[in-house]
Design a protein that fits this description.
The chain is α/β, with parallel strands linked by helices. The strands form three sheets. Strands 6-5-7-9-8 form a five-stranded mixed sheet, with helices on both faces. α20 links the parallel β5 and β6. α13 runs antiparallel to α17. The protein starts with a helix and ends in a 5-residue tail after the last strand.
């Protein structure tokens, strides 16, 4: 009876944490972004536009196998919905429903809402599993829901706002002692985590993979028969299988996207990252970094968490002194095992994030490796600084638990935590307000393609493809062009992909044998030799447009 009552109360806390996530999302981003037919807020916004237009072209394209491919963005080659970061699982589901959906449809606001709610859910599950009081569990969920590392990515690199996947992996590890012998269930759970990673964003792989490795290793180190130990590998097998199947189905292995990178380290984690506010704090300044791109290693914890860190330090000192006074020498081996594993996972994640050059501020401390081959393939995760995010959550979990354990009177622990949550929210309130100003208000999109040439092209008719000739695609220009192409039923030969697709050969062939169905777009500052292609040329805004036939 008591157990059933506890389950009912726990479910109420979980539901409350999810509702808290929804309230926080609406408070920060408003409700307009939830309107599926309102897409102006997604346009002219860099990566956010990339995600939305990736979905638009994928939706319009014919069904293929694997399911996540479209030829609309790298024509005549296929590109994958994975490499536009358009949240593949949502793109697939809504493409299935496309016949009954309005012509303009976006799901990114609802993805954000779901992420905030699931962030609250898994935060509450973790804290409840660690026997933190119910009010503390609910209050502590605030720190996870409004974590600066979530706010930084939501509606910037939108798929990476799904930090609940990280918390799901942490939750499975936290529950290890209770569930590791039920190999069937644990294999299912880890298989789902792998599938979520393949269906959302590949950068969650090393983050969640660290906790999978810890889970399997702890299982193998427990007592048991050889047969049982062998079966403990099944969660790892299921994880890899779920990841591989979903990545394959969404076309991750079916394009010429370049997986590796030679600039690993440019976007790494700087060891001052936990304290580098980067404009998020009302109290703490931005700190210098070794590389300009180390903003990807943003890991600011917040002033409220820093106060809880001080509380945690008091708890640790108090525990040591108490152990010395009482003469307690018995060591819980299982507790030591988990403690060592948490340390190993944290250190491993930090080193991965800092790879391959460990830096502090504007100083280079050491180089982990100078192998060009290793760093090239390691460069699949070239924005390696992101890999530190799970450590932020482990710190938050640790300080909340220490605060709970320090005070024998739980209402004091709850009061301290609530004060720290309020301090945390006030500390980052300036950034929260700027997010609200950016997204809650109504926005309109005005294309910069204002020349009458664009209208004349449409009036002429017969065009099917836009050939972007420039090699410079890391800017908004190509996305304005892609919006024009999508609105008028044209394909693109190139786009701003998360992993580049080398289309130089196709572009060269197209220029050598110009096609009357193509609109050739040259940047006005890259027109050397343009007359040699035998095209009719027209100035349009900042571009030179070339066509085989003369347009009226």
């Amino acid at each position: 009876m008591m157990q059933e009552e506890h389950k009912d109360k726990a479910k109420l806390i979980y539901l409350s944490a999810m509702l808290l996530g929804a309230v926080c999302f609406i408070a920060v981003y408003g409700t307009r972004v939830l309107n599926p037919t309102y897409d102006a807020w997604l346009l002219g916004r860099g990566d956010l536009t990339q995600h939305y237009l990736g979905w638009c072209f994928f939706r319009r394209g014919a069904w293929t196998f694997p399911f996540g491919l479209t030829y609309g963005l790298a024509y005549p080659d296929y590109s994958s919905i994975i490499f536009t970061d358009s949240i593949p699982v949502f793109a697939f589901l809504f493409k299935l429903l496309s016949p009954v959906l309005p012509e303009t449809f976006q799901y990114f606001g609802w993805w954000g809402l779901a992420c905030f709610m699931l962030q609250g859910l898994f935060a509450a599950k973790i804290l409840d599993e660690l026997c933190v009081g119910r009010l503390q569990t609910l209050a502590g969920s605030f720190l996870f829901i409004l974590s600066p590392v979530v706010i930084e990515k939501m509606f910037r690199h939108t798929a990476l706002g799904g930090h609940w996947i990280i918390l799901a992996a942490i939750y499975l590890f936290v529950r290890h002692r209770k569930i590791y012998t039920d190999v069937g269930k644990t294999a299912l759970y880890w298989g789902l985590v792998g599938a979520y990673i393949g269906s959302v964003h590949m950068y969650f792989l090393p983050m969640c993979g660290a906790f999978l490795c810890g889970f399997v290793l702890c299982s193998l180190l427990k007592k048991g028969t050889l047969k049982a130990k062998t079966s403990y590998l099944l969660p790892g097998v299921a994880f890899v299988l779920g990841l591989f199947v979903c990545t394959y189905l969404f076309g991750g292995f079916s394009t010429r996207a370049e997986a590796g990178s030679n600039d690993l380290g440019e976007f790494s984690f700087n060891l001052n990252g936990f304290f580098n506010a980067k404009g998020y704090s009302r109290f703490l300044p931005s700190l210098t970094t070794y590389h300009d791109g180390q903003y990807e290693g943003f890991a600011y914890l917040g002033l409220g968490v820093y106060v809880l860190l001080a509380v945690a330090l008091v708890y640790c000192i108090h525990t040591v002194i108490l152990g010395i006074r009482t003469g307690k020498r018995k060591i819980d081996g299982e507790l030591v095992l988990y403690g060592v594993m948490y340390v190993l996972m944290s250190v491993g994640l930090i080193l991965f994030a800092a790879s391959p050059e460990v830096t502090f501020g504007d100083r280079l401390l050491l180089i982990l490796t100078d192998s060009s081959t290793l760093t090239h393939y390691w460069g699949m995760f070239r924005s390696s600084g992101r890999i530190v995010w799970p450590v932020c959550y482990l710190i938050m979990i640790g300080v909340i638990v220490c605060n709970d354990r320090l005070f024998t009177k739980k209402h004091i622990a709850t009061a301290v935590l609530i004060v720290c949550v309020i301090l945390q929210i006030f500390d980052i309130s300036g950034k929260l307000q700027s997010q609200r100003r950016a997204f809650a208000g109504e926005r309109t999109y005005e294309t910069p393609l204002e020349s009458d040439v664009w209208t004349r092209l449409l009036a002429h008719g017969g065009f099917e493809h836009i050939v972007w000739v420039s090699h410079n695609i890391d800017n908004n220009d190509i996305m304005h062009m892609a919006k024009y192409a999508y609105d008028n039923g044209l394909t693109m030969n190139n786009f701003y992909f998360a992993r580049g697709i080398n289309v130089n050969e196709n572009t060269k062939k197209s220029l050598e044998n110009p096609d009357r169905s193509c609109i050739y777009v040259f940047r006005s500052d890259e027109t050397q030799g343009i007359e040699g292609y035998g095209l009719n040329l027209y100035e349009a805004d900042n571009y030179i447009i070339g066509t085989v036939d003369e347009i009226d």
